[in-house]
Automatic annotation (TrEMBL):
Taxonomic lineage from the root: Bacteria, Bacillati, Bacillota, Bacilli, Bacillales
Keyword Kinase: no
Keywords, ordered alphabetically: ATP-binding, Nucleotide-binding, Transport
Domain ABC transporter: 5-229
Molecular function as annotated in GO: ATP binding; ATP hydrolysis activity
Full protein name: ABC transporter ATP-binding protein
Pfam families on file: ABC_tran (PF00005)
Entry annotated with the keyword Nucleotide-binding: yes
């Protein structure tokens, strides 16, 4: 697959503090990515640099092989910010009309369908909308734009479970019919697991992990059993976390297990469970790197 976006050794400093440090990211064509990190990890800083809102101190960004100058926007690009600066006095439909002017692949039929799906009144003024509804407006723009590179920053902020599920459903269905590169930055980590094909995990401005979601599922495990048995089993494996309780121990590992490993686990009378993405993320951030 061709590379749509490439960030090479990005650095961003505020005073003496690094918001991003030598960050490398590559997004391939027609893939859904998750961008994960705790608050202050550098996610929004990275997205704002890509969108030309702020400038990196060092490093380069290329879109489809073309190096971007400072402040230059990628072509056929849509960035849905966490905090949209919408026109408070405007009606919802007017905001959509304004956004449509910037996206040549805009699909009005899809936009009207999304208004119905999310139960939004197109004539309602923006200043009368809730925080969650503002998120939905941004999501309609991001989806209906059909931009070949679409970035969402916390797209389900303020939404209840039902609306979050509707958004994910619409995104996946439209992606299946109109593939493009999508980057979702979110703190709702387990919710992104069925959506993203690959994830980037960053912390303190540095990259901790870039991996396919399926590979994480096949390598992130929680081991539980007698303390000595668990220690023996995890020896030589990538250990993310350990915790003792009485004579027992649990250990989180990031390692593909073969038939021999599973046979050894049965002999040692220890259990192997799959880690949720949330737990994997937490253990990785807290000391697995």
């Amino acid at each position: 697959m061709s590379i749509v976006l490439s960030c090479d050794r990005l650095n961003k400093k505020y005073g003496q503090n690094y918001a991003l440090r030598d960050l490398d990211i590559q997004l391939e064509e027609n893939v859904i990515y998750g961008l994960l990190g705790r608050n202050g990890a550098g996610k929004t800083t990275l997205l704002n640099i890509i969108a030309g809102g702020i400038f990196a101190n060092d490093g380069t960004i290329e879109v489809r092989g073309k190096k971007l100058d400072k402040g230059e926007l990628p072509e056929d690009f849509c960035f849905v910010r966490e905090k949209n600066k919408l026109f408070g006095g405007a009606r919802l439909i007017e905001v959509l009309r304004f956004a449509a002017n910037f996206h040549p692949n805009w699909d009005w039929t899809f936009a009207h369908k999304l208004l119905q799906t999310f139960r939004l009144d197109p004539n309602k003024k923006i200043k009368h909308l809730s925080r969650g509804t503002e998120s939905l407006i941004g999501n309609i723009i991001g989806l209906a734009s059909r931009a070949s590179l679409t970035v969402f920053d916390e797209p389900v902020l303020g939404l209840d479970v039902l609306m979050r599920e509707r958004f994910y459903k619409e995104l996946l269905e439209d992606y299946a019919n109109h593939p493009r590169t999508i980057l979702l930055s979110t703190h709702l980590i387990d919710e992104i697991a069925p959506i993203a094909e690959r994830v980037y995990i960053i912390d303190e401005g540095s990259l901790l992990l870039h991996e396919e979601m399926n590979q994480i599922r096949m390598a992130a495990y929680l081991i539980r059993g007698n303390s000595d048995a668990v220690s023996l089993f995890t020896e030589g494996k990538r250990l993310l976390h350990t915790e003792s309780y009485g004579h027992g121990k649990i250990a989180a590992i990031f390692e593909k297990l073969n038939d021999g490993d599973r046979l050894q686990a049965r002999k040692l009378d220890i259990t192997i469970e799959n880690l949720t993405l949330q737990k994997f993320f937490s253990y990785l951030i807290e000391g697995g790197h």
